[in-house]
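Board notes (copied after class):
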Amino acid sequence: MGGALVTYIGNVPYTFVVGAINSDTSITLTANYQGSNVSGQSFSLIDRGAYTAITAELGARTAQAIRGLNYDKANWQQILTVNGSVTVNMPDGSQYSGPSWISLVNSLNSKANASDYAALNASNTFNGVIATNNSSTSGSSHWSREFKSILKGYPNSSGTDMFVSLFMNQVDAVDTYATLRVSAYSAIRDFTFNSGGNGVAPSGWITNSDVRIKTNINRISDPLS
């Protein structure tokens, strides 16, 4: 009792567990046989201890396979949907952590391409964070180059990005100057600095003595004394 009888019926293997031994020629199975009637079958016997061990091993391997499938589903969901680092669980209980695909894509989107570097190296132009290059040899300006930095994520009221540009200009063989252009909310302001050390602000510079940062201003009643 508790052992198993194994036979092939129509090339299909069947395993029957012995529920009771009625006589030398009759046994009762633990479950009803649902196939067609056959006779003269050859069969093999598996004793109860071996059958119990086989069943336990089969159950353990089935559970391991299902656990691995569940881990795979959970792991892939993390890798495909989470923005950041994820922890991957292995069927043997070990773990490892790494970036998700979304975080990799976001990271790569902020990196320069080899073609961008080649363009920058060739013409001082960098398409992306540093945008355009303006070169001129006409008039009194020998050269002028612009390096533009876009402030992504801070659109102004018209829907365009705010940006800061740096213009480097050479007026003649001696004098050069740089212009810092700030553009935001449809307003453009240029701050210019030349090689002689002078700087120009569109509305003048605010210093510690500037009237625009003074309060409680009064006339001196007797300035001579």
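Comment from the instructor: The two ends are 124 Å apart (CA to CA). Helices lie at 48-81, 101-109, 114-123.
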